[in-house]
Amino acid sequence: MKMLATLLFTLLSFTSHAQSTWPRNPRTGEVELQGSLPWPKDAKTDSQQQALVRRWYLAKLTDLSPAEVDRKAAPDKTSSILTYARLPKVAVLRQGKGSNEYILGYTMRLTGSPIGLAYTINDFYFNKVSEVEAYDPTPLEELLPKATPKEQAALAALRKRFAVALAGW
User: pTM for the complete prediction?
Assistant: First the structure.
């Protein structure tokens, strides 16, 4: 009985920890990452700033190749699906391999200003990649309280990737 109680408290702490590591918008209750990155001194012009944002995005915020990002941006003449630096508003990160592969999709708004880049990342959806590549995404807010230990591990790794990406250029 003592062992069962210990296991139960351990599992409850994992769920509580998984929920607390993803910041929430206090108004909507949805998971949301918001902040800004100041421009480095050598990014003085708009074109230098956009190039910096593109490098940062490709290196840290997507698993897409530069060619895939360009392909997604090319047909959009109105910029309805693009954000700052002509980057797609919807992005995807993958975590794991094989039967333990997960996809986290999200939406981002990037806004350049004279002092830096403001970002809002939200509308997170989580999906386990199955053998048949079925896509049945779950809103992150729904998943967090009931995530399995494997899902929690994947989410912790993805959260760490965001922390690194949003810490600086």
Answer: 0.80
